[in-house]
Specification:
188 residues, alpha+beta, six-stranded antiparallel sheet
Amino acid sequence: MDAETEEILNGIAPRLRAIRQSRRLSLETVAAETGISVSTLSRLESGKRRPTLDLLIPLARVHHVALDQLVAPPATGDPRVHLKPHRHGQGSIVVPLTQYPGRIQVFKQVLARREPELVTHEGYEWLYVLAGTVRVIIGEREFTLTPGEVAEFDTVEPHWFGPAATDSVELLHLFGPRGDQAAVLTHP
């Protein structure tokens, strides 16, 4: 095995442990969610067992990270995200702010006036209003959000959001896998 491959493989164990601990998960919890035994997980995290794809794929799913985040260290150097706006309909723009599938995705959106059309899909969403007044419909309930306000909801419920008036609105939109919910951490 060449030195570069050896270095990559040796870096996986500490990344697995750091990700699990940052999510405050026990080995037992990860074992229950992946079907991988506690002893195998422990050996993977200590570097005593070589990782294989059939072990890494379920771990990436449980930790809501892309597989390449487990295999390779985060890129260093230029930390900037190169924004690529996408036009949706007339006057609406979506700017992806994150790039990894399988975990929380962040978008900046400018939404033009449009008619409500309720949708459902797997996932969990958060909306943070930057400018304008946003109308949010979740099932039979309707809400109005102003700048600085936040809404969060499970997307299996029929939902829609857009401008409450004729003006466009600007918001941060976070979309995550089903089961992910916001956690507020405070220090004493």
